[in-house]
Design a protein that fits this description.
5 helices; single chain; alpha+beta; Nucleotidyltransferase, domain 5; globular; two-stranded antiparallel ribbon; eight-stranded mixed β-sheet
Amino acid sequence: MLTIPNIMRCQKLTQSPFRLLIVRNRHNEAIQVAWEKPEIGWTKLNFDGSCKGKAGKGSIGGVFRNHKAEFLLGYAETIGRTTSTIAELAALRRGLELVLENGWDDVWLEGDSKTLVEIIARKRQVKCAEAQGHISHINLMIPELNNCILSHVYREGNKAADRLAQMGHHLKKPQVWRHNPPYQVLRIMQDDAEGKIFLRKR
């Protein structure tokens, strides 16, 4: 189902541990990047964190879609001064909270931070207490799901989540969209649904 650089597929943690497969493309040509639909019965979350400047203003955003690339839910909010890593972790944590609130059991989580994917996949301990707090909550929520995939995608395949995270900078309070997405992501979602390919230079 997936043709992505980093993928982690996990079921109940008591049944199957995390597995991380890293595929490295050693060629120098441009990489083709496109958003991929989940399988029937799965819900896909694309999430992103944004941080303006070192330890600057942070925001998060994410979008849920089904196997037809139909919009299910989106979220965005500002999170104050932070770092890019914590913003990414906060975006995933908020997304997982919404997963559990909506009762989705088979979920594909995808973001454009390779570092975050590896931290969660390898269960790394980090020195920052705030970051470790997010990681601990994430690791508690994932086992609640029946099936879960966590993958990395280049930013070109994560444009809808990136746009929502950028919108979060301008919101006075957290916002959740249900059924109808904000107009700012409509064109991006149409491109994604059509499988539009973007070329990423190495």
